[in-house]
Amino acid sequence: MKSAVALSALSMLAAAEAAETVLGAYIFHRHGDRTPKALAPTNLTALGYEQVYTSGQYYRSRYLSGDSKIHGINEDEVKLSQLQVQAPVDNVLQNSAMAFLQGLYPPYQTVQTLASGQSVTAPMDGYQLIPVNTISTGSGSEDSGWLQDASSCVNAEVSSNSFFNSEEYSKLASNTEDFYSSIVPSINRVISDDEVTFKNAYIVYDIIHVAEIHNSSIPNEDVLTNSTLHQLQTLAHAHEWGLAYNASDNIRAVAGMQLAGEIISYMNAIISTEGSTKLGIQFGAYATFMSFFGLVDLPKASTDFTGVVDYASSMVFELFTDSDLSAGFPGADDLQVRFLFHNGTASNSSEPTVFPLFGGSNNAMSWNDFQTNLNEFAISNTEQWCTKCGNSTGACAAYVSTTNDASAQQNSNDDRVSPAIGGVIGAFVTLVVVLGSLVAFMFVGGFRLVSKEALARGVPTTSIEPKA
């Protein structure tokens, strides 16, 4: 009897799990290991290629063939209409995207028979060509040591620069002078000695971090203890967080705002196509992770979300439903979203973890609530970006003129009087003009006004005497 009850309970649990269906997902992914920013142009290393390739293999096992397989997605041979892959114009990020895709959709051997009867086998064991679309967001980010350089957003740059005037920055810069001085020999003149300060905390950390991975020896290596390396990383985290997000001035997180708009757009595409669109993948820089973390209150879930993410880190947004799909694609009220994050390369032995968004406690939220919360700050089009960033040149010039015209029209409307008052003023002006003309006519022509009695007595209405 007990075994029957246990089997029944297990059957119910299995049925409950089976009822959940993943309809689509959006992955935002960092690049793999690369050469240091200070020695631009940066390049993806063999280690970096392997890291993102492994991540691609993991997401293949999750979304193409595993228990969380996206409903209706092609498992082996890619169907391009189901997939959207994006990366900025950046060698490291674009190459990372291609490495990831090779893990996601490995070679698929195909043989075609021509009309002549000849059989043609696809080269490279059937390597699948998947286009990586370029986007303007984050272009050249891996060649830039300044977090906001890739954003091109004027107001975001101003906001980030204000961090350097903050009390937090001043204290850290002052208290770490001796620490950074001790690191100077290890930098080995990659940057000048006077640049080895907290002001360049991430660049200094990046140089040492890359050297620790790839160099067999480093000058002044005895100084680089585990404690020193940890302090370098901690200071880099604090520096970049200060530049990426500020709760009282969120335009600093413009990269996260743009990502929010892209997530909403892709999720809406999944819904509007009733699941024909299935998997969106975008590669980007760590700054986008950090600014997005701040905007969705992830530091409330863990303080780890205030640091720079490791190479090949990924965050995922899953759109799923508990509804029965036999009746067709579910309505918006039956859709839910789940957020997952993994620091570093995801694999079957180290999978992403689910975290609650927006300071909540639930691991999933309704699609409607998710969309409403993101729309509080999401940038979804060029005009919104131009307005928030205060940019007025290039693509923004058209929106500036529109804004000025609207402002001028508004000012005109504010100054305009009502038709009733305008009529009174118009009548008064007309009367003044008529009277003025009459006086001038009488003066020039020698006319004068006389009463009816004077006319009866025969008083002349004009004078023919010459004027003095």
UniProtKB/TrEMBL annotation:
Keywords from the UniProt entry: Membrane, Signal, Transmembrane, Transmembrane helix
Pfam family, one: His_Phos_2
Segments crossing the lipid bilayer: 420-447
N-terminal signal peptide: 1-18
InterPro entries named in the record: His_Pase_clade-2, His_PPase_superfam, Histidine_acid_phosphatase
GO function terms (MF aspect): phosphatase activity
Family recorded in the similarity comment: Belongs to the histidine acid phosphatase family.
Protein name in the entry: Phosphoglycerate mutase-like protein
Source organism of this protein record: Decorospora gaudefroyi
